[in-house]
Structure formats: C-alpha cells, structure tokens
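Bench notes, afternoon.
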Amino acid sequence: MAAAPKLSDFVMHNAREAMAAGLLHIEQQVRSIELAVTENPGLAFDLAKTLIESICKTILSERTISFGSDDDLPKLFKTVTAHLPFLPASASAQVEARRSLQHTLSGLHTAVQGVCELRNNCGFASHGRERQRPPMEGVQALLAAQAADAIIGFLYRVHRQGRPPSSVKFEYGDNPTFNGYVDEAYEPVRIFAFEYRPSEVLFSLDREAYRDALEDYEAEQEESDKDEEGTET
C-alpha cells in the first residue's frame, strides 16, 4: 500500500494549471500557501481567501464585468457564478441538470464562506481581537488550501472553456516593435538597483492585458497604414 502523502508534499495543482494558462500574478501566493500549510497554518487561511479573491477579480476583469473595489469575497464569488456559463450549450435547456448544478454551486458558496470565517477566526494576518485565536494545525490549513485549489481550478476552467487556445506559442520576443512602443511610452520599472522594461513587466505579470494592448496597437497601426495609402492615391 502506498504511503499517504505528507503535508509538506502539498501542491496546488489546479492553481498551477491556471498559472500555466496565463495567471502568472498568483505564483507568489501559490508558493506561499504551499509552504504555509505546514510552516504557518494560520497564514494558509489568509492566503486561501486571497487566492480565491484573485481568481474572481481576474475572471470578472477579463469578462469586463464591473465589481466594487470594496466587494467582499462572497459577493465577488456570487457575481462570478452569475456570469459564467456552467452548463454547455447542448444542456442549457435541461431543467434538472441546471437545478443540480445550482445545488453544487451553493455548496461551493458555503465553502467560500467557510474559508472566510476560518481566515477571520484563525488567520495569521486577520484583524486583532480581544480573545486569543484557537491554534490550528497543518491538517486544518490543508482543508482550506485544498478547498481554495478546487474552487480556483473549477472557476478558471469554466471561464476559459470555449475560448480557443492560440495555435502559435506566444512569446515576449515576437513583438519587438510593440515592445519598443511600450518602453518609449512608460518609464522603466526600478526596484533597488535593478531596472526592468515596462513591456517585459506587463508581459510577465498580466499576459492577457499585454495581448489586449498588442491587439489595440496593431489595429491602430493598420488603420494608420490605410489612411496613408488613401492619402497617396
């Protein structure tokens, strides 16, 4: 019989799959929660809540759905689930399937609420209280981390389904003209003695925003070329 995995072996497979699909900005949070499960269980509750918030805000932003800057996690989750196509088009008229799925989503909402309460009552970085918080161990932190990983994976897969992946590998060096345009428009990013190109920072931190800006730039260039051709004729 195979030995049970140790808590120190915990990996957020779903979150890492989302990272590979473009969510590079959650990498530090993912690495931190994987370590916190055993090294600082209280922090794992804080990070589990933060990670779900990040995925909700990313999905809403990519779908151009407005949300309030002070919306709490349960409200963000509710907004996301109200706008995602959870049922495939072929099953959209199936009343029983829709009802069953709604029950499942209600369970996920309860899980989100539980993560929030664990963070408030047991989190390492939550607001101070007069009474001492109950100490939590790795197994409780693992529950919160696994719940967050499952929610993140499910929401992001539903969000991305139906969107055809690019058949061409998208690399930073493929668009030197656009990169130069961005670098001329914005100041370099300086951190201590290090300096980074704005275009490279955008590409690394928000691949979707980089792609959208590139498409706008190419559209403007195409329109400009047409205007020049019209002038010449």
